[in-house]
Amino acid sequence: MHKDIDFNQIDLNSQPPAAEPARQYYFIAKLRQHVKEESERIGRPLTANVTTFGCQMNARDSEKLAGVLECAGYLPAETEEADLVLYNTCTVRDNANQRVYGRLGHLNSIKKKNPLMKIALCGCMMQEESVIEKIKKSYRFVDLIFGTHNIFKFAELLCTMFESGRTVIDIWKDTSQIVEDLPVDRKYPFKSGINIMFGCNNFCSYCIVPYVRGRERSRNPEDILKEVKSLAADGVVEIMLLGQNVNSYGKNLVPPVSFAELLQRVEEIDGIERIRFMTSHPKDLSEELIQVMKHSKKICRHLHLPLQSGSTRILQAMNRRYTKEQYLALAEKIRKEIPDISITTDIIVGFPGETMEDIEETIDVVKKVQYDNAFTFIYSKRTGTPAASMPNQVPQEIIKQGFDQLLETVQEIAKKRAALLQGKVLPALAEERNVQDNTLITGRLSNNMIVHFPGSPALLGKIINVRLKECHGFYYLGEIDHA
Ligand code: 5AD
Ligand code: SF4
User: Fold this and answer.
1) pTM for this prediction
2) Which of 16, 41, 115, 302 is deepest in the core (most CB within 10 A)?
3) What would the pLDDT profile of 426-440 be if each residue is shown by its tens digit?
4) Which-ligand-closest: CA of 305?
5) What span, in angstroms and rounded, lies between the C-alpha atoms of 223 and 244?
Protein backbone atom coordinates (compact mmCIF):
# COMPACT_ATOMS: atom_id res chain seq x y z
CA MET A 1 0.00 0.00 0.00
CA HIS A 2 1.14 3.55 -0.68
CA LYS A 3 2.04 4.90 2.73
CA ASP A 4 0.92 8.49 2.37
CA ILE A 5 -2.31 8.18 0.42
CA ASP A 6 -5.75 7.28 1.72
CA PHE A 7 -7.47 6.16 -1.48
CA ASN A 8 -10.82 5.98 0.28
CA GLN A 9 -10.73 9.77 0.72
CA ILE A 10 -10.56 10.48 -3.01
CA ASP A 11 -13.81 11.90 -4.39
CA LEU A 12 -14.71 9.87 -7.47
CA ASN A 13 -17.68 12.09 -8.31
CA SER A 14 -15.33 14.90 -9.29
CA GLN A 15 -13.35 15.05 -12.52
CA PRO A 16 -9.95 13.32 -12.54
CA PRO A 17 -7.15 15.82 -11.73
CA ALA A 18 -4.97 16.89 -14.67
CA ALA A 19 -1.69 16.84 -12.73
CA GLU A 20 0.38 13.73 -11.97
CA PRO A 21 0.64 11.79 -9.74
CA ALA A 22 -2.73 12.95 -8.31
CA ARG A 23 -4.42 11.80 -11.51
CA GLN A 24 -3.16 8.24 -11.07
CA TYR A 25 -4.19 8.21 -7.39
CA TYR A 26 -7.70 9.05 -8.60
CA PHE A 27 -7.68 6.12 -11.04
CA ILE A 28 -6.27 3.76 -8.41
CA ALA A 29 -9.21 4.75 -6.19
CA LYS A 30 -11.55 4.02 -9.10
CA LEU A 31 -9.91 0.66 -9.71
CA ARG A 32 -10.32 -0.20 -6.01
CA GLN A 33 -14.03 0.29 -6.37
CA HIS A 34 -14.14 -1.90 -9.46
CA VAL A 35 -12.03 -4.66 -7.87
CA LYS A 36 -14.17 -4.56 -4.70
CA GLU A 37 -17.45 -4.84 -6.65
CA GLU A 38 -16.13 -7.66 -8.84
CA SER A 39 -14.80 -9.68 -5.93
CA GLU A 40 -18.06 -9.24 -4.00
CA ARG A 41 -19.96 -10.42 -7.06
CA ILE A 42 -17.89 -13.58 -7.52
CA GLY A 43 -17.29 -14.22 -3.83
CA ARG A 44 -13.50 -14.30 -3.83
CA PRO A 45 -10.62 -11.83 -4.07
CA LEU A 46 -9.30 -10.89 -7.52
CA THR A 47 -5.72 -11.97 -8.25
CA ALA A 48 -3.03 -10.49 -10.47
CA ASN A 49 0.25 -11.83 -11.80
CA VAL A 50 3.09 -9.68 -13.09
CA THR A 51 5.71 -11.59 -15.10
CA THR A 52 8.95 -9.80 -15.95
CA PHE A 53 11.23 -10.47 -18.90
CA GLY A 54 14.62 -8.82 -19.27
CA CYS A 55 16.80 -6.54 -17.21
CA GLN A 56 16.88 -4.88 -13.79
CA MET A 57 15.12 -1.83 -15.24
CA ASN A 58 12.18 -3.98 -16.16
CA ALA A 59 12.26 -5.66 -12.75
CA ARG A 60 12.00 -2.23 -11.14
CA ASP A 61 9.19 -1.17 -13.50
CA SER A 62 7.35 -4.34 -12.53
CA GLU A 63 7.58 -3.41 -8.85
CA LYS A 64 5.83 -0.15 -9.74
CA LEU A 65 3.16 -1.94 -11.76
CA ALA A 66 2.65 -4.44 -8.92
CA GLY A 67 2.41 -1.47 -6.52
CA VAL A 68 -0.56 -0.11 -8.47
CA LEU A 69 -2.26 -3.52 -8.51
CA GLU A 70 -1.73 -3.98 -4.79
CA CYS A 71 -3.22 -0.55 -4.05
CA ALA A 72 -6.14 -1.40 -6.31
CA GLY A 73 -6.91 -4.43 -4.14
CA TYR A 74 -5.59 -7.31 -6.22
CA LEU A 75 -3.96 -10.23 -4.40
CA PRO A 76 -0.60 -11.10 -5.92
CA ALA A 77 -0.58 -14.45 -7.77
CA GLU A 78 2.60 -16.47 -8.25
CA THR A 79 1.34 -18.16 -11.41
CA GLU A 80 -0.50 -17.02 -14.50
CA GLU A 81 -3.74 -18.66 -13.29
CA ALA A 82 -4.97 -15.21 -12.29
CA ASP A 83 -7.69 -12.66 -13.07
CA LEU A 84 -5.16 -10.24 -14.48
CA VAL A 85 -1.87 -11.22 -16.08
CA LEU A 86 0.63 -8.56 -17.08
CA TYR A 87 3.75 -9.36 -19.09
CA ASN A 88 6.46 -6.72 -18.83
CA THR A 89 8.42 -7.55 -21.97
CA CYS A 90 11.99 -7.22 -23.28
CA THR A 91 13.13 -6.97 -26.88
CA VAL A 92 16.90 -6.66 -26.60
CA ARG A 93 17.34 -9.98 -28.44
CA ASP A 94 14.83 -11.80 -30.60
CA ASN A 95 14.63 -14.82 -28.28
CA ALA A 96 13.06 -12.53 -25.63
CA ASN A 97 10.25 -11.76 -28.12
CA GLN A 98 9.82 -15.42 -29.05
CA ARG A 99 9.40 -16.37 -25.39
CA VAL A 100 6.56 -13.87 -25.02
CA TYR A 101 4.75 -15.17 -28.11
CA GLY A 102 5.15 -18.73 -26.86
CA ARG A 103 3.70 -17.95 -23.47
CA LEU A 104 0.84 -15.90 -24.90
CA GLY A 105 -0.50 -19.05 -26.55
CA HIS A 106 -0.58 -20.71 -23.15
CA LEU A 107 -2.33 -17.68 -21.59
CA ASN A 108 -5.10 -17.96 -24.12
CA SER A 109 -5.90 -21.48 -22.96
CA ILE A 110 -6.08 -20.26 -19.33
CA LYS A 111 -8.33 -17.38 -20.39
CA LYS A 112 -10.77 -19.77 -22.03
CA LYS A 113 -11.38 -21.28 -18.58
CA ASN A 114 -11.71 -17.92 -16.80
CA PRO A 115 -13.89 -15.45 -18.72
CA LEU A 116 -13.04 -12.75 -16.19
CA MET A 117 -9.36 -12.93 -17.02
CA LYS A 118 -7.66 -9.90 -18.52
CA ILE A 119 -4.30 -10.01 -20.31
CA ALA A 120 -2.04 -6.97 -20.47
CA LEU A 121 1.31 -6.46 -22.21
CA CYS A 122 3.78 -3.66 -21.65
CA GLY A 123 7.49 -2.86 -21.84
CA CYS A 124 10.14 -2.61 -24.52
CA MET A 125 8.75 -5.10 -27.02
CA MET A 126 5.51 -3.09 -27.23
CA GLN A 127 7.42 -0.07 -28.56
CA GLU A 128 7.92 -1.90 -31.85
CA GLU A 129 5.27 -1.31 -34.48
CA SER A 130 5.67 -4.76 -36.03
CA VAL A 131 4.94 -6.36 -32.65
CA ILE A 132 1.72 -4.40 -32.20
CA GLU A 133 0.60 -5.40 -35.70
CA LYS A 134 1.28 -9.05 -34.96
CA ILE A 135 -0.60 -8.97 -31.65
CA LYS A 136 -3.57 -7.20 -33.21
CA LYS A 137 -3.71 -9.84 -35.91
CA SER A 138 -2.82 -13.08 -34.17
CA TYR A 139 -3.36 -12.52 -30.43
CA ARG A 140 -6.73 -10.82 -30.34
CA PHE A 141 -7.44 -12.01 -26.81
CA VAL A 142 -5.01 -9.43 -25.37
CA ASP A 143 -6.93 -6.68 -23.50
CA LEU A 144 -4.39 -3.94 -22.83
CA ILE A 145 -1.12 -2.91 -24.47
CA PHE A 146 1.10 -0.05 -23.41
CA GLY A 147 4.77 0.83 -23.78
CA THR A 148 7.73 2.06 -21.76
CA HIS A 149 6.95 5.79 -21.73
CA ASN A 150 3.49 5.67 -20.18
CA ILE A 151 3.81 3.00 -17.54
CA PHE A 152 3.00 5.65 -14.95
CA LYS A 153 -0.51 5.69 -16.48
CA PHE A 154 -1.13 2.01 -15.73
CA ALA A 155 -4.04 2.68 -13.33
CA GLU A 156 -5.75 4.98 -15.82
CA LEU A 157 -5.26 2.53 -18.69
CA LEU A 158 -6.73 -0.31 -16.66
CA CYS A 159 -9.78 1.83 -15.85
CA THR A 160 -10.24 2.64 -19.53
CA MET A 161 -9.95 -1.06 -20.36
CA PHE A 162 -12.62 -2.05 -17.82
CA GLU A 163 -14.96 0.79 -18.74
CA SER A 164 -14.70 0.44 -22.52
CA GLY A 165 -14.80 -3.37 -22.53
CA ARG A 166 -12.51 -3.21 -25.58
CA THR A 167 -8.81 -3.77 -26.18
CA VAL A 168 -6.89 -0.63 -25.22
CA ILE A 169 -3.63 0.13 -27.01
CA ASP A 170 -1.62 3.17 -25.94
CA ILE A 171 1.96 3.51 -27.15
CA TRP A 172 3.94 6.76 -26.92
CA LYS A 173 6.92 7.44 -29.15
CA ASP A 174 8.88 9.25 -26.45
CA THR A 175 8.42 11.39 -23.36
CA SER A 176 10.29 13.91 -21.30
CA GLN A 177 7.98 13.33 -18.35
CA ILE A 178 9.18 11.69 -15.13
CA VAL A 179 6.36 11.00 -12.68
CA GLU A 180 7.45 10.62 -9.05
CA ASP A 181 5.72 9.17 -5.97
CA LEU A 182 3.74 6.32 -7.46
CA PRO A 183 3.18 3.21 -5.34
CA VAL A 184 5.78 0.41 -5.42
CA ASP A 185 5.54 -3.19 -4.27
CA ARG A 186 9.13 -4.27 -3.60
CA LYS A 187 10.16 -7.86 -4.17
CA TYR A 188 12.61 -7.75 -1.25
CA PRO A 189 11.92 -5.70 1.90
CA PHE A 190 15.63 -5.05 2.46
CA LYS A 191 16.97 -4.23 -1.01
CA SER A 192 15.71 -2.16 -3.87
CA GLY A 193 16.54 -0.87 -7.30
CA ILE A 194 16.08 2.82 -7.89
CA ASN A 195 15.97 4.52 -11.28
CA ILE A 196 18.34 7.44 -11.57
CA MET A 197 17.86 7.94 -15.28
CA PHE A 198 15.79 6.66 -18.16
CA GLY A 199 16.59 6.00 -21.82
CA CYS A 200 19.89 5.97 -23.67
CA ASN A 201 21.61 8.30 -26.14
CA ASN A 202 24.47 6.07 -27.19
CA PHE A 203 23.01 4.31 -30.19
CA CYS A 204 25.37 1.35 -30.20
CA SER A 205 24.67 0.09 -33.72
CA TYR A 206 23.29 -3.34 -32.68
CA CYS A 207 21.07 -2.07 -29.87
CA ILE A 208 17.35 -1.43 -29.91
CA VAL A 209 17.23 0.14 -26.44
CA PRO A 210 17.51 3.81 -27.53
CA TYR A 211 14.54 3.24 -29.87
CA VAL A 212 12.30 1.59 -27.30
CA ARG A 213 13.36 3.45 -24.15
CA GLY A 214 13.81 6.89 -25.71
CA ARG A 215 16.29 9.67 -25.05
CA GLU A 216 18.35 9.86 -21.93
CA ARG A 217 16.82 11.81 -19.04
CA SER A 218 18.13 12.02 -15.50
CA ARG A 219 16.03 12.36 -12.38
CA ASN A 220 16.80 15.28 -10.11
CA PRO A 221 19.27 14.33 -7.39
CA GLU A 222 16.88 15.65 -4.71
CA ASP A 223 14.12 13.29 -5.88
CA ILE A 224 16.56 10.36 -5.89
CA LEU A 225 17.89 11.19 -2.42
CA LYS A 226 14.37 11.59 -1.07
CA GLU A 227 13.46 8.16 -2.42
CA VAL A 228 16.62 6.56 -1.01
CA LYS A 229 15.91 8.12 2.41
CA SER A 230 12.37 6.82 2.41
CA LEU A 231 13.61 3.36 1.37
CA ALA A 232 16.15 3.42 4.21
CA ALA A 233 13.40 4.42 6.65
CA ASP A 234 11.42 1.45 5.34
CA GLY A 235 14.19 -1.05 6.17
CA VAL A 236 16.16 -1.11 2.91
CA VAL A 237 19.90 -1.68 3.47
CA GLU A 238 21.04 -2.17 -0.12
CA ILE A 239 20.16 -0.10 -3.14
CA MET A 240 21.01 -0.47 -6.79
CA LEU A 241 21.10 2.73 -8.81
CA LEU A 242 19.71 1.93 -12.25
CA GLY A 243 20.29 3.45 -15.66
CA GLN A 244 21.30 2.30 -19.14
CA ASN A 245 24.47 4.34 -18.79
CA VAL A 246 24.85 5.59 -15.22
CA ASN A 247 28.21 7.18 -15.98
CA SER A 248 26.53 9.87 -17.99
CA TYR A 249 24.03 10.61 -15.21
CA GLY A 250 23.23 14.27 -14.63
CA LYS A 251 25.07 15.72 -17.61
CA ASN A 252 21.93 17.44 -18.86
CA LEU A 253 20.62 18.62 -15.51
CA VAL A 254 20.80 22.29 -14.58
CA PRO A 255 23.18 22.61 -12.83
CA PRO A 256 24.91 19.41 -13.98
CA VAL A 257 25.66 16.74 -11.37
CA SER A 258 28.12 13.89 -11.94
CA PHE A 259 27.36 10.28 -11.13
CA ALA A 260 30.29 10.27 -8.70
CA GLU A 261 28.76 13.24 -6.86
CA LEU A 262 25.42 11.50 -6.68
CA LEU A 263 27.08 8.40 -5.23
CA GLN A 264 28.76 10.47 -2.53
CA ARG A 265 25.47 12.02 -1.54
CA VAL A 266 23.75 8.63 -1.43
CA GLU A 267 26.59 7.31 0.71
CA GLU A 268 25.74 9.89 3.41
CA ILE A 269 22.27 8.44 3.96
CA ASP A 270 22.03 6.56 7.27
CA GLY A 271 20.65 3.06 7.10
CA ILE A 272 21.91 2.35 3.59
CA GLU A 273 24.80 -0.08 3.99
CA ARG A 274 25.44 -1.14 0.42
CA ILE A 275 25.27 0.70 -2.88
CA ARG A 276 25.37 -0.96 -6.27
CA PHE A 277 24.85 0.46 -9.75
CA MET A 278 24.19 -0.78 -13.25
CA THR A 279 25.22 -0.25 -16.10
CA SER A 280 28.49 1.54 -16.81
CA HIS A 281 29.57 2.49 -20.30
CA PRO A 282 33.39 2.32 -20.48
CA LYS A 283 33.63 5.50 -22.54
CA ASP A 284 32.06 7.59 -19.74
CA LEU A 285 33.69 6.01 -16.69
CA SER A 286 35.56 8.82 -14.95
CA GLU A 287 38.66 8.95 -12.78
CA GLU A 288 36.45 10.72 -10.23
CA LEU A 289 34.19 7.64 -10.07
CA ILE A 290 37.14 5.29 -9.53
CA GLN A 291 38.36 7.46 -6.65
CA VAL A 292 34.89 7.67 -5.09
CA MET A 293 34.53 3.88 -5.30
CA LYS A 294 37.99 3.35 -3.90
CA HIS A 295 37.34 5.45 -0.80
CA SER A 296 33.74 4.43 -0.25
CA LYS A 297 32.66 2.22 2.64
CA LYS A 298 29.32 1.43 1.07
CA ILE A 299 29.81 1.08 -2.69
CA CYS A 300 30.06 -2.62 -3.48
CA ARG A 301 33.23 -4.11 -4.91
CA HIS A 302 31.64 -4.91 -8.23
CA LEU A 303 31.72 -3.20 -11.57
CA HIS A 304 29.75 -4.37 -14.58
CA LEU A 305 31.66 -2.96 -17.54
CA PRO A 306 30.26 -4.19 -20.86
CA LEU A 307 33.01 -4.90 -23.37
CA GLN A 308 30.82 -6.15 -26.27
CA SER A 309 33.92 -6.88 -28.39
CA GLY A 310 37.68 -6.86 -27.95
CA SER A 311 38.35 -5.96 -31.59
CA THR A 312 38.82 -2.24 -32.20
CA ARG A 313 37.51 -2.65 -35.74
CA ILE A 314 34.29 -4.24 -34.51
CA LEU A 315 33.98 -1.77 -31.60
CA GLN A 316 34.06 1.02 -34.15
CA ALA A 317 31.35 -0.62 -36.24
CA MET A 318 29.36 -1.08 -33.03
CA ASN A 319 29.71 2.67 -32.34
CA ARG A 320 31.08 1.96 -28.87
CA ARG A 321 33.56 4.86 -29.01
CA TYR A 322 36.52 3.17 -27.31
CA THR A 323 39.35 0.97 -28.58
CA LYS A 324 40.60 -2.35 -27.26
CA GLU A 325 43.61 -0.55 -25.78
CA GLN A 326 41.50 2.13 -24.08
CA TYR A 327 39.29 -0.52 -22.50
CA LEU A 328 42.30 -2.52 -21.29
CA ALA A 329 43.93 0.58 -19.81
CA LEU A 330 40.70 1.43 -17.98
CA ALA A 331 40.31 -2.09 -16.58
CA GLU A 332 43.94 -2.10 -15.47
CA LYS A 333 43.54 1.22 -13.70
CA ILE A 334 40.41 -0.01 -11.89
CA ARG A 335 42.11 -3.24 -10.79
CA LYS A 336 45.14 -1.29 -9.55
CA GLU A 337 43.11 1.27 -7.60
CA ILE A 338 40.55 -1.19 -6.19
CA PRO A 339 42.31 -4.59 -6.00
CA ASP A 340 39.40 -6.48 -4.39
CA ILE A 341 36.90 -5.42 -7.08
CA SER A 342 35.14 -7.94 -9.25
CA ILE A 343 34.70 -6.94 -12.88
CA THR A 344 31.96 -8.50 -15.00
CA THR A 345 31.00 -7.85 -18.59
CA ASP A 346 28.70 -8.42 -21.56
CA ILE A 347 30.05 -9.74 -24.86
CA ILE A 348 28.36 -10.16 -28.23
CA VAL A 349 29.53 -12.79 -30.71
CA GLY A 350 28.55 -12.67 -34.37
CA PHE A 351 28.24 -8.93 -35.01
CA PRO A 352 28.13 -8.29 -38.80
CA GLY A 353 31.55 -8.65 -40.38
CA GLU A 354 33.10 -10.33 -37.34
CA THR A 355 35.80 -12.89 -38.11
CA MET A 356 37.54 -15.54 -36.03
CA GLU A 357 40.45 -13.07 -35.65
CA ASP A 358 38.11 -10.50 -34.10
CA ILE A 359 36.77 -13.11 -31.67
CA GLU A 360 40.35 -13.98 -30.75
CA GLU A 361 40.89 -10.31 -29.88
CA THR A 362 37.87 -10.54 -27.58
CA ILE A 363 39.28 -13.70 -25.98
CA ASP A 364 42.56 -11.86 -25.50
CA VAL A 365 40.77 -9.08 -23.58
CA VAL A 366 38.96 -11.69 -21.46
CA LYS A 367 42.33 -13.19 -20.53
CA LYS A 368 43.93 -9.83 -19.79
CA VAL A 369 41.07 -8.36 -17.74
CA GLN A 370 40.40 -11.66 -15.91
CA TYR A 371 36.65 -11.15 -15.65
CA ASP A 372 34.93 -12.54 -12.58
CA ASN A 373 31.99 -13.32 -14.83
CA ALA A 374 30.85 -12.53 -18.36
CA PHE A 375 27.47 -12.75 -20.06
CA THR A 376 28.00 -13.89 -23.62
CA PHE A 377 25.33 -13.30 -26.24
CA ILE A 378 24.93 -14.32 -29.83
CA TYR A 379 24.27 -11.26 -31.97
CA SER A 380 20.58 -10.82 -32.68
CA LYS A 381 19.48 -8.68 -35.60
CA ARG A 382 17.11 -5.95 -34.41
CA THR A 383 15.00 -4.28 -37.09
CA GLY A 384 15.57 -0.55 -37.28
CA THR A 385 19.10 -0.57 -35.85
CA PRO A 386 22.04 0.37 -38.13
CA ALA A 387 23.63 -3.09 -37.73
CA ALA A 388 20.54 -4.80 -39.12
CA SER A 389 21.29 -3.46 -42.59
CA MET A 390 25.04 -4.08 -42.48
CA PRO A 391 26.44 -6.57 -44.97
CA ASN A 392 28.40 -9.70 -44.00
CA GLN A 393 26.11 -11.27 -41.46
CA VAL A 394 28.34 -13.91 -39.83
CA PRO A 395 28.07 -17.60 -40.80
CA GLN A 396 26.69 -19.96 -38.15
CA GLU A 397 29.90 -22.06 -37.99
CA ILE A 398 32.01 -19.05 -37.01
CA ILE A 399 29.46 -17.99 -34.42
CA LYS A 400 29.34 -21.47 -32.92
CA GLN A 401 33.09 -21.98 -32.89
CA GLY A 402 33.81 -18.46 -31.56
CA PHE A 403 31.08 -18.61 -28.94
CA ASP A 404 32.25 -21.99 -27.60
CA GLN A 405 35.87 -20.89 -27.39
CA LEU A 406 34.91 -17.65 -25.70
CA LEU A 407 32.64 -19.36 -23.19
CA GLU A 408 35.32 -21.88 -22.30
CA THR A 409 37.83 -19.10 -21.59
CA VAL A 410 35.28 -17.06 -19.62
CA GLN A 411 34.35 -20.04 -17.42
CA GLU A 412 37.90 -21.13 -16.80
CA ILE A 413 38.90 -17.63 -15.67
CA ALA A 414 35.75 -17.07 -13.62
CA LYS A 415 36.44 -20.31 -11.73
CA LYS A 416 40.02 -19.30 -11.04
CA ARG A 417 38.92 -15.88 -9.84
CA ALA A 418 36.29 -17.39 -7.54
CA ALA A 419 38.81 -19.79 -6.03
CA LEU A 420 40.92 -16.84 -4.86
CA LEU A 421 38.37 -16.19 -2.11
CA GLN A 422 38.78 -19.67 -0.55
CA GLY A 423 38.91 -19.51 3.26
CA LYS A 424 38.22 -15.78 3.51
CA VAL A 425 35.67 -14.30 5.93
CA LEU A 426 33.54 -11.70 4.16
CA PRO A 427 30.26 -9.87 4.84
CA ALA A 428 27.25 -11.28 2.99
CA LEU A 429 23.73 -9.89 2.76
CA ALA A 430 21.33 -12.75 3.61
CA GLU A 431 18.88 -12.53 0.70
CA GLU A 432 16.72 -15.64 0.67
CA ARG A 433 16.17 -19.16 1.88
CA ASN A 434 17.80 -21.64 -0.43
CA VAL A 435 15.11 -23.29 -2.58
CA GLN A 436 16.75 -26.71 -2.72
CA ASP A 437 17.72 -26.91 0.95
CA ASN A 438 15.77 -24.66 3.29
CA THR A 439 18.27 -25.05 6.14
CA LEU A 440 20.55 -22.87 4.01
CA ILE A 441 20.45 -19.13 3.50
CA THR A 442 21.63 -17.62 0.23
CA GLY A 443 23.77 -14.56 0.70
CA ARG A 444 25.56 -12.16 -1.60
CA LEU A 445 29.04 -10.77 -1.08
CA SER A 446 29.95 -7.19 -1.86
CA ASN A 447 31.60 -8.44 -5.07
CA ASN A 448 28.29 -10.07 -6.12
CA MET A 449 29.44 -13.67 -5.47
CA ILE A 450 26.79 -15.97 -4.01
CA VAL A 451 27.39 -17.96 -0.81
CA HIS A 452 25.04 -20.52 0.74
CA PHE A 453 25.35 -21.11 4.48
CA PRO A 454 23.37 -22.77 7.28
CA GLY A 455 21.23 -20.20 9.06
CA SER A 456 17.73 -19.25 10.12
CA PRO A 457 15.30 -17.10 8.11
CA ALA A 458 15.52 -14.54 10.91
CA LEU A 459 18.82 -13.50 9.32
CA LEU A 460 17.20 -12.36 6.05
CA GLY A 461 18.05 -8.76 5.29
CA LYS A 462 21.04 -8.74 7.62
CA ILE A 463 24.70 -8.45 6.67
CA ILE A 464 26.64 -11.28 8.29
CA ASN A 465 30.27 -12.37 8.25
CA VAL A 466 30.56 -15.66 6.41
CA ARG A 467 33.57 -17.95 6.05
CA LEU A 468 33.92 -19.19 2.46
CA LYS A 469 34.65 -22.87 2.82
CA GLU A 470 34.00 -24.69 -0.43
CA CYS A 471 34.21 -23.15 -3.87
CA HIS A 472 31.75 -24.58 -6.39
CA GLY A 473 32.82 -22.53 -9.37
CA PHE A 474 30.28 -19.75 -9.38
CA TYR A 475 29.24 -19.94 -5.74
CA TYR A 476 30.53 -20.92 -2.32
CA LEU A 477 29.32 -23.01 0.54
CA GLY A 478 30.17 -21.30 3.79
CA GLU A 479 29.37 -20.90 7.45
CA ILE A 480 28.64 -17.96 9.70
CA ASP A 481 31.79 -16.66 11.33
CA HIS A 482 31.07 -15.82 14.96
CA ALA A 483 34.48 -14.37 15.75
N1 5AD B 1 22.25 -8.89 -29.95
C2 5AD B 1 22.88 -9.53 -28.95
N3 5AD B 1 23.11 -8.99 -27.76
C4 5AD B 1 22.70 -7.71 -27.56
N5 5AD B 1 22.81 -6.91 -26.48
C6 5AD B 1 22.22 -5.74 -26.78
N7 5AD B 1 21.74 -5.76 -28.04
C8 5AD B 1 22.04 -6.98 -28.54
C9 5AD B 1 21.82 -7.61 -29.79
N10 5AD B 1 21.21 -6.99 -30.79
C11 5AD B 1 23.49 -7.29 -25.25
C12 5AD B 1 24.65 -6.34 -24.95
C13 5AD B 1 24.15 -5.57 -23.77
C14 5AD B 1 23.25 -6.57 -23.10
C15 5AD B 1 22.27 -6.01 -22.14
O16 5AD B 1 22.59 -7.20 -24.17
O17 5AD B 1 25.76 -7.12 -24.61
O18 5AD B 1 25.20 -5.13 -22.93
FE1 SF4 C 1 22.20 -0.29 -25.87
FE2 SF4 C 1 24.63 0.82 -26.02
FE3 SF4 C 1 22.60 2.14 -24.76
FE4 SF4 C 1 23.67 -0.07 -23.64
S5 SF4 C 1 24.74 1.87 -24.03
S6 SF4 C 1 21.46 0.42 -23.86
S7 SF4 C 1 24.18 -1.32 -25.43
S8 SF4 C 1 22.71 1.63 -26.94
Assistant:
1) 0.95
2) 302
3) 999 999 999 999 999
4) 1
5) 19
